[in-house]
Amino acid sequence: MSIAVDNVSFAAGNTLIVNGISLSVEKGKVLGLLGPNGSGKSSLLRLICRLRKVRSGVVRLGGSDIASISRGDIARRIALVEQQATTDTRVTVIDVVRLGRTPHRGPLSSWSARDDAAVLDALARVGMRDRAGQLWQTLSGGERQRVHIARALAQTPSELLLDEPTNHLDIQHQLDILGLISKLDVTCVVALHDLNLAAMFCDSLAVLQKGEVVAAGLPEEVLTQELIERVFGVRAHVQKSSVHGRCNIQYMAG
């Protein structure tokens, strides 16, 4: 397995945020994390990349306990796209994306053609290459999100973690970004709110509630009418889409 989480728990003070979670992701596959606000999705992503320290349990990368891997090696291997990231510094789009190359460069190393190629390729993948010289502060929320994803891609990671990457994006760019993510030759763990997008683009799903995994497996196994009502508190009709062949969810009022 590329990523394996074994009975992991995490607490903030006396509050248990992640409670005995176990899950795994095969190399090159996309795992979608679903659940209501406060279910532990963001905390789990930070535990996987060691931005948070587990209270108990083990997170493994390629079979190795992440606690035994140096922070430099983790930075070169894992890229994280968070929900919100901003700056008051006057920087351009390409300046932001260049930050993705930082883990690959020593303190005295010069910028290389390989770095340039990684940055330009990442910008092209998210449709922002023509905005390379534009100031960050002039971008819309959706454009900023695409630039953050480009920064992560410029890092050339083997594992990519994304926390609500479609926030602030219009429908076209939601589909474009998740389509891109689903075709990358990297292992992805992505936290999402939209159940239909998760069904369309993720190879497998894990549903979290109050810090625990309450369902995991293929989208069509996980996204049942009963689970959606129990976890998300809404009534829904689930059927196979005649367009993309995955399950499609229609919500019912009242």
TrEMBL record:
Coiled-coil region: none
InterPro entries for the chain: AAA+_ATPase (IPR003593), ABC_transporter-like_ATP-bd (IPR003439), P-loop_NTPase (IPR027417)
UniProt-listed Pfam families: ABC_tran
GO molecular function, one term: ATP binding
ABC transporter domain segment(s): 3-235
Record-stated family: Belongs to the ABC transporter superfamily.
Protein name in UniProt: Iron(III) dicitrate transport ATP-binding protein
Native species: Rhizobium freirei PRF 81
Gene label: fecE
